[in-house]
Design brief:
Blueprint (H helix, E strand, L loop, with lengths): L1 H29 L10 E12 L5 E13 L13 H8 L5 E5 L11 E10 L2 E12 L6 E6 L4 E4 L13 E6 L5 E10 L3 E12 L8 H4 L3 H18 L15 H14 L18 H11 L3 E3 L7
Antiparallel strand pairs: 1-2, 1-10, 2-3, 3-4, 4-5, 5-6, 6-11, 7-8, 8-9, 9-10
């Protein structure tokens, strides 16, 4: 059934994107001197590297383009994200908030990772205090958001991001402040496979001359990301990597289990890679775990959209 939904999604996206591409071409022809940049948006271009070491070696890289929005000042922020005030409340900061994301293009959105940079202002200086990661899985479109320390942090894996990865282990994550260049580094620490997966984004700021129009700059960018995801999923399947069903079919309380594992990480980081950190949660502990984690990590889940729900 999920293969049928995937086929329907691909066909629908093709039709919608073709129509919006024609509209974009018409606009560019009608207004050849389109604005070079949008207010309070910084554009970046870079590369994403993926490396898997187990159970087979598999690595690839692809070019990517991102936009950094000033959420307090930009009038053209993509929908379906936190506002500046919501991000400040979650991060408990008092300064500006910037969102790094891949904007939708010609009617399609594909954004595995967005990052909110949350600053504190003290006197005349501002410091990057916290970040919020917003991770979306493919093809289901589920999302989890959580707070992390940009210098270095470790988070219990809270989302089924790939059918070729189980829910065990933790994400080690760090990022630099977005200036002339930026980087985001995420690795998976598994109780049995060790540090077997790593993803790195590096990008540089793009001059306004290079990006004549934001819509053109990001044309088909989400589509290219999706193609890379599906193509390398096929390659992993061909190499014999086991296909893992979504945990909602086998362990419906996987989110509560992630809360408990993250609580253990924060209380005693040395237990982060132990097998017993992945035990099933007792019902009596759920409310206590949710209360503790909501005050510290601030996990927020969004369910899959139709037709995956």
């Amino acid at each position: 059934m999920e293969l049928l939904y995937l086929f329907f999604s691909i066909v629908s996206t093709f039709i919608t994107s073709s129509f919006h591409t024609l509209l974009l071409l018409f606009r560019l022809i009608s207004h050849p001197r389109a604005a070079a940049e949008h207010d309070h948006v910084t554009l970046y271009e870079g590369v994403v590297w993926h490396t898997r070491r187990s159970p087979v070696h598999h690595s690839f890289q692809y070019s990517v383009r991102y936009a950094l929005f000033d959420l307090d000042r930009s009038p053209n922020v993509p929908p379906d994200h936190f506002s500046a005030d919501e991000a400040r409340r979650i991060s408990r900061t008092n300064g500006p908030i910037f969102l790094l994301t891949i904007p939708p293009s010609v009617g399609y959105e594909q954004n595995p990772l967005s990052v909110y940079y949350c600053y504190d202002v003290e006197r005349s200086s501002r410091n990057l205090k916290k970040c919020i990661a917003e991770v979306t899985n493919t093809p289901w479109g589920e999302r989890v958001s959580f707070l992390f320390d940009p210098k270095s942090d470790i988070v219990a894996k809270p989302l089924h991001v790939s059918p070729f990865m189980d829910m065990l282990g933790n994400w080690s994550i760090r990022t630099t402040a977005p200036e002339d260049d930026l980087s985001v580094d995420i690795s998976v620490q598994h109780p049995e496979l060790g540090k077997y997966f790593r993803a790195i984004l590096t990008a540089k700021k793009v001059s306004s001359k290079m990006a004549r129009d934001q819509a053109s700059f990001f044309w088909l960018m989400p589509h290219r990301v999706a193609i890379w995801i599906y193509w390398h999923a096929v390659k992993l399947w061909w190499k014999g990597v086991p296909f893992i069903q979504h945990p909602r079919y086998q362990s419906p309380k996987y989110r509560e289990e992630a809360l408990l594992r993250d609580e253990k990480l924060q209380c005693c980081p040395s237990l982060g890679s132990n097998k017993d950190s992945n035990q099933t949660i007792e019902a009596s502990k759920l409310s206590r775990v949710a209360e503790i984690s909501s005050k510290s990590r601030c996990f927020t889940w969004r369910d899959a959209k139709w037709p995956w729900c």
